[in-house]
Amino acid sequence: MGETMTTLLTTAHSVSALWKAPPLGGSRQFWGWLNAVFNKVDYERIKTVGPDRAASEWLLRCGAKVRYEGFDRWQQDYNGLPTGPLGRYKIQAIDATESCIMYRGFDHLDGLKHLEEIKFNRCMYIEDTCMERLSQIENLQASLRRVELVSCGNVTDKGIIFLHHFRNLEHLFLSDLPGIKEKEKTVERLQTALPKLAIELDLP
């Protein structure tokens, strides 16, 4: 990623507490710019190192974690990303808790073929357009088994309905989603499309 990206990562980590609080004034503009930088898609990088490595770099620099197929440990240290033959490490799970991933970075997910689990927990930039984009990725339509959405205030019933495209989805957990206004109707539509899906709710 180079010296510039390393500097940005160091800056972001050193003031991460500020990012978690609602930014005001110039801080909002700064974080908006920084998050846009972190979510920028480098298509040449994807071609060079492969989709799983490029997606790992994107996710970790945005504060998310990944777990690779065949490994139990979550990888969250950007500078500690494993080295070795390209294609050895396949992303099986993503934990995006309190990360700054946003729509513009979702092209990183297109080449992932082994992703089974995604957790969106307190993700302020995850919204319905992100769920729609996710649902359009053909590889994920086949591979995804578990999805968790917690405290993502910009996700509504419309965003949840897009999950019906994941034909092999087995478990869905929804909690603290104020944007969901028609809980029963939304759940019914999902269950009709995915009769084997187990849905766990913690919604008012």
Molecular structure report:
The chain is of the alpha/beta class and 204 residues long. It is built from 9 helices and 7 strands; from the N terminus they run H-H-H-H-H-E-E-E-E-H-H-E-H-E-H-E. It has helices at residues 2-14, 16-20, 26-38, 43-49, 51-61, 128-135, 138-143, 157-161, 183-193; strands spanning 65-68, 74-75, 91-95, 117-121, 146-150, 171-175, 198-202. It has a 7-stranded mixed sheet with strand order 2-1-3-4-5-6-7, with helices on one face. A hairpin with a 5-residue loop joins strand 1 (65-68) and strand 2 (74-75). Helix 4 (43-49) packs across helix 5. 29% of the residues are buried. Mean pLDDT is 88; it is low at 10-22.
What spatial form do the alpha-carbon principal axes imply? globular
User: Which blocks of ≥5 consecutive residues have pLDDT under 50?
Assistant: 10-22
In spatial order, strands of the major sheet run 2-1-3-4-5-6-7
Largest sheet report: 7 strands, mixed
Query: What share of residues are in beta strands?
Result: 15-25%
User: How many beta-strand elements?
Assistant: 7
Helicity, in percent? 25-40%
Number of helices: 9
Q: End-to-end distance, in Å?
A: 44 Å
Query: Whole-number radius of gyration?
Result: 17 Å
- Secondary structure category: alpha/beta
Overall mean pLDDT stands at 88
Order of helices and strands: HHHHHEEEEHHEHEHE
